[in-house]
């Protein structure tokens, strides 16, 4: 249907002595322009933009045309095009949404790009792993497990024994006792007394 309409317009132009013009433009957009088609009068004429965005309609006859860009990713402005001998330079083009006149070749930008509703997934980052609270706790625990045996090996035997007795005494304390300084002192005194008794018994 589009090819037949084009042939008919060209035939009428030749028979009536109508002027035919070359209509050029450039689509400016980020990303690929694959699958985009530029049409006049809903497909009576069509052009496919090149990789650089440029497109051309050959031998457009006199008359008024509505140019549209078929694109699933962006919304482009509709352009009213007039071709004729009485028109300055043979062609005039006006964007429909803001009434702005376009110079030839037409420079067209999208009025709305397709919105991305999904957040782009970021790649793996070591900094985010190191800032994880669980990872920090694991590093601290690992450091303690690595350092403590060395500290215990270099500790004086008497001090080591006292520490073990203190840990044993504190292990028998309840949570409320741990919060009570008097209870802690009492348990420490008992642990020291028991240590002295065991020392005398050995003698």
From TrEMBL:
Location in the cell: Membrane
CC annotations in GO: EMC complex
Keywords: Membrane, Signal, Transmembrane, Transmembrane helix
Membrane topology of the entry: Single-pass membrane protein
Spans through the membrane: 134-153
Signal sequence range: 1-20
Main location: membrane
Residue intervals of the ER membrane protein complex subunit 7 beta-sandwich domain: 34-137
Protein name: ER membrane protein complex subunit 7 beta-sandwich domain-containing protein
């Amino acid at each position: 249907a589009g090819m037949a309409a084009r042939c008919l317009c060209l035939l009428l132009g030749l028979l009536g002595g109508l002027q035919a013009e070359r209509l050029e433009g450039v689509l400016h957009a980020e990303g690929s322009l694959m699958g985009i088609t530029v049409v006049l009068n809903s497909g009576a004429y069509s052009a496919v933009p090149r990789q650089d965005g440029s497109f051309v309609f050959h031998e457009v006859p006199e008359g008024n045309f509505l140019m549209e860009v078929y694109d699933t990713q962006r919304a482009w402005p509709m352009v009213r095009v007039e071709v004729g001998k009485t028109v300055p330079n043979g062609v005039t083009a006006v964007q429909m949404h803001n009434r702005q006149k376009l110079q030839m070749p037409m420079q067209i930008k999208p009025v709305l790009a397709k919105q991305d509703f999904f957040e782009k997934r970021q790649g793996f980052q070591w900094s985010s792993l190191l800032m994880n609270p669980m990872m920090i706790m694991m590093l601290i625990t690992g450091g303690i497990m690595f350092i403590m045996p060395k500290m215990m090996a270099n500790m004086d035997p008497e001090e080591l024994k006292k520490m073990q007795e203190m840990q044993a005494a504190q292990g028998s304390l309840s949570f409320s006792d741990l919060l009570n300084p008097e209870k802690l002192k009492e348990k420490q005194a008992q642990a020291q007394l028991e240590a002295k008794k065991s020392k005398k018994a050995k003698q």
